[in-house]
Amino acid sequence: MGGIRFLSGPIEALGIEAVIVTGIVFVVVSGLKLLAAYWLWHARMDGAILELILLGLSALFWYAFELPFGPLGGLISIILLALAWPSLG
After folding, report:
1. Higher-scoring residue by pLDDT: 8, 61
2. For a FRET experiment, which of 19, 52, 55, 79 has its CA 20 to 30 Å from that of 26?
3. Domain parsing of the chain, residue ranges
């Protein structure tokens, strides 16, 4: 593939169709993270559980797209969830 390499990584070897489909799934997972954040804002435990599930799914995208700061963001999310866990109802 020529031009600017954006969201490449190992998934790029499967072709542009795979990159597009995987990118769309990534957007859906990111949208669900907004729902988890909303629930966490209202101190709901299901928001924390959803965030942990989505964090696991996001790790697949960090590898597939070679996102350099994904693991750092994930670590920050885990630390913040651990700090907020006692106050969730």
Report:
1. 61
2. 79
3. 11-87
